[in-house]
Phosphotransferase family enzyme (Mangrovibacterium diazotrophicum), 368 residues
Amino acid sequence: MRYEESELRAIIGNFIIEGELAKIILYGDGLINQTYFVETAGESSPDYILQNKNTNIFKDIPGMMNNIQRVTAHLKAKVKQAGGDPEREAMTVIESKSGEPFYKDEQGNFWTLYLFISDTQTYESADTPEDAYAGGKGIGKFQRMLADMEGELTDILPGFHNMRYRFQQWDAVLAKDPVGRKKELSAEINWIESRRAEMMDFWKLVESGEIPIRVTHNDTKINNILFDQKGEVLCVIDLDTVLSSTVLNDFGDAIRSYTNTGLEDDPDLSKVGMDMRIFEGFTKGYLSEARAFLTESEKHYLAFSAKFITYEQVLRFLMDYIDGDNYYRVNSEDHNLVRTRAQYQLLLSIEAQMDAMNAIVKESCSTI
Ligand code: ATP
Ligand code: MG
Ligand code: MG
């Protein structure tokens, strides 16, 4: 839904802002929410970011915003302690006139307002080891600053990266086989089943607390990090998916997406694989921050987490294919199968390089 400027002005009227509203324009390249840049007149008042939240994906916006307020309050305290600027190095949620961290309009749409962080640089993708290092450092720093935050966040995406839950879904879909696709897929199903025990063994360590529950970001794309003009990490943004889980999910998912030399749905499997130079860059950047707080267990499973998250993605694509394509948007009948095969190729590439990955983790943990 597109909004007229007059409608947007009326929405902003429900928040307490400084200065006089000048203009509101669609902004950025986010795929999930509709984002607007809100400019105020003159230099003395700040600008803002207005978002129309995607309620198809996020069912509990009050829970989400409560999480974001807790996380940003903790980050701001840390930034202050370190002598930094809490309004540039952490997101600032602007409350509505009724004192809530969002405004709900008459149609039931949720709107949020943040301070706009100016004079920053962003990268669209991490194509070099140096960019990957910067991305890894951003995520590592974010996690480090939140490593001592107490209490769990509201679980706004139930089941997310939860392997026990995934296997329950998997078993149910296989038992049902609603569109009769299972019979053609014995090799692919075996890709999942032959690694099931290994994946559950890891997940049990998360369930038992051997691998701790911490604050995780869950959307570690490099365009969710703002860098300052010198190229230093300034602020991690897009906190919609902050959750309590293992920080290894953030690491593993970043490796899955940053290092793939092909596309997530590449029909040409010869293009797909994990680029070790990008792995090394990201891992060194990440551990330059994260080695200060990670436990021995977390360090031990760091490289494995890339395998875990990539495996989960293979499972989810294949499960959706068997289920008749209900979750991921498809542009052909076998799109989810093409995705399954491409992610599996990436999984094989990660498995083949696991020793080298572990060696890089070890080396980066001990560098002073
Ligand atoms: P995604 O597809 O990554 O989930 P999204 O729809 O959730 O995106 P955001 O990433 O939150 O949207 O915001 C979109 C863009 O707006 C960001 O990539 C960034 O460029 C810009 N942006 C968001 N918040 C701020 C902020 N507080 N200060 C400056 N720029 C911001
Ligand atoms: Mg984003
Ligand atoms: Mg987002």
